[in-house]
Amino acid sequence: MLVYSSPSTASAGVFSKIGDFFSKNDSIQEGGNSQNLAILEASSGPSWQKLPSGGGDITIVGGVALLPDAGPSGTQVEVNEKPSSASGQVSTYIVRQGDTISSIAKMFDVSAGTILSANDLKRGDTLSVGQKLIILPISGVQYTVKKGDTISSVAKKYKVDVGEIVGFNGFSSSEEDLTIGEVIIIPFAEVEEKSTTQTKKTTSKAHGTSGPDYSGYYMRPVQYELGRKSQGLHGYNGVDIAGAVGTPIVAAASGEVIVSKQGGWNGGYGSYIVISHDNGTQTLYGHLSGVVAKEGWHVSKGQLIGYMGSTGRSTGSHLHFEVRGAKNPF
């Protein structure tokens, strides 16, 4: 049983025990969801009325302690680790009283635009207590707006679609004015690397490719006769498997569905599903035309979870399949 109290009255011993808990386990675990110091939702369909408050810095949901590095009041939590999306795991966060997009972004060490994009929010949207937010570790180039910049000119400079910048940063349209000094994210942009002899451009390499090799644990999410691999490792340890719209997609391994999103941009994934597995890894299935498996479902290896499509950042019908926390066997 986890004990919580307001930081103003908590003893150093309580925080020491919580710190020891995380240092021993290296993760917050709930139902096999490991390798993730970011917050994983403990149950499906949470209701904010059921969320007990542990003061400014601690909230308990289903026995899982949600510990930011700084609460809405600005007080600090005395633990060695802070929530982070650096592990590459997809996570969910339940909005508390006093939270803002900016404070949550700081909590997870991601940009505000990442949170806006992943949850189909726009700048100025109001958060509600109990609202569930998806936290996606999306890579992109940070860009500081200069005099004369427009969304279109920045998109042209980095050779990306205008819609990617609009969707990722939560702009209302491509005509929205940029503020000088404002920092925005250019998703999937080319990065200029300067050297003493020449300037060259390289695209971002695949991330999250290191990790254990669980050969045989995952099955191919698309039958061989129905889809072919159209792109090797890219993005976050992902591969693309091309096929016809509506091609069945199955769970690569048994586990719990922790994210199931039908419709929306969602950081470029479009309609997508994330499954958490007992070995501490997650698999992600993106660009779906239809979602079958719902959040909270326990699915078996080979079970139908959705259908192939071309939603989100996609140029043709295919499945974007990621393995987070282990090598991608495909």
CATH hierarchy, class of the largest domain: Alpha Beta
> Mean pLDDT, nearest integer?
69
* Content of β-strand: 25-35%
- How many strand elements? 17
Order of helical and strand elements: HEEEHHEEHHEEEEEEEEEEEE
Give a quick account of the main beta sheet: strands, pairing sense, barrel closure. Answer: 9 strands, antiparallel
Q: From the structure provided, what is the oligomeric state, counting identical versus distinct chains?
A: single chain
CATH superfamily of the largest domain, by name, is LysM domain
Number of helices: 5
Using only C-alpha atoms, the radius of gyration works out to 20 Å
The CATH architecture term of the largest domain is Roll
CATH topology term of the largest domain: Membrane-bound Lytic Murein Transglycosylase D, Chain A
Terminus-to-terminus distance: 41 Å
Which residues form runs of ≥5 with pLDDT under 50? 1-86, 191-206
Report on this model:
It is a single chain. The chain has 330 residues and is an alpha+beta fold. The chain has helices at residues 12-25, 101-108, 112-118, 151-158, 162-169, and strands at 59-61, 64-66, 91-94, 132-135, 140-144, 183-187, 191-194, 199-202, 228-234, 238-242, 248-250, 255-261, 271-276, 282-291, 298-299, 304-308, 318-324. Strand 13 and strand 14 (282-291) form a beta hairpin. The longest helix is centred in the first third of the chain and has 14 residues, at 12-25. It is globular, with a radius of gyration of 20 Å. It starts with 11 loop residues before the first helix and ends in a 6-residue tail after the last strand.
